[in-house]
Amino acid sequence: MKLICIGRNYAAHIDELNNERPVEPVVFIKPDSAVLPKEQDFYIPEFSNDVHYEVEVLIKIKKVGKYIDRKFAHRYYDEISLGIDFTARDLQSKLKEKGLPWEKAKGFDGAAVVGKWVHKGKYENLDKLGFSLLKNGEIAQSGDTSLMLWKIDELIAHVSTYFMLKKGDIIFTGTPAGVGKVVPNDYLVGRIEAEEFFAINVR
Ligand code: ZN
Q1: Residue 16 pLDDT exceeds 90
Q2: Is the per-residue pLDDT at 11 higher than 90?
Q3: Which of 23, 67, 75, 141 shows its CA 20 to 30 Å from the CA of 181?
Q4: CA 57 to ligand 1 centroid distance, Å
């Protein structure tokens, strides 16, 4: 199983990190060992002093596909969720400066929170889905999939050009604005519309 993550998919988040707008999706991979086990607390790794939360809508691939046409992309997933792409921002900035890959900053153990899965049929329109991250009871990030530069089906078409998608693979579709640092004892709750998808203690 692989985690395929999209960077810079919301204009407001690109601006807050002073990044350039990409001409095609920014794609990176997290190893399966990055998934935070269910019911486990998130431990800030000792190599970073600036770990950020990034709340993102997740898609679970249900069958093998390669070079998937956008108009057939909906056939490759039934379930969606919400998660966090934890990022060691200090380390990522150093790597970016040197033009090096981001994996150490994005793929460490526990860096991928995967919430509960629900059937996509629950929602009328996946391209108009409100979601949010609450930190210690207050809204830290809120987004809407209508603000994605590349929509879910376009992302599937794009990433399947490079990587064969397999059953169980998860796509992290990018984060909206409002990313920020976590500190020990933070409590993070993710919601799509009013429904809770995950709740995480930070240690
Ligand atoms: Zn992200």
Answers
A1: no
A2: no
A3: 23
A4: 10
Q: Please report the pLDDT score of residue 17 as a whole number.
A: 84
Q: How far apart are CA 99 and CA 120, in angstroms?
A: 37
Residue 117, Cβ density class (10 Å: 0-12 exposed, 13-18 middle, ≥19 buried):
middle
Written as six digits, the tokens of 36 are 């935070």
pTM: 0.96
C-alpha 6 to ligand 1 mean position (Å): 6
For the chain, the domains span: 3-129+145-182
| Dihedral-angle region of residue 166 (phi above 0 means left; psi in -120 to 50 means alpha; beta otherwise) | beta
Q: Identify the architecture of domain 3-129+145-182 in CATH.
A: Alpha-Beta Complex (3.90)
Ligand 1 centre to CA of 185 (Å) is: 22
So what's the pLDDT on residue 68?
98
Q: Are 127 and 90 in contact (CB under 8 A)?
A: no
Distance (Å) from CA 53 to ligand 1 centroid: 8
The answer to whether residues 112 and 166 touch, using CB atoms and an 8 Å cutoff, is no
Distance 32 CA to ligand 1 centre (A): 16
Distance 176 CA to ligand 1 centre (A): 9
What is the distance in A from the centroid of ligand 1 to the CA of 66? 23
pLDDT reading at 15 higher than 90? no
Q: Is the CB of residue 152 less than 8 Å from the CB of residue 60? A: no
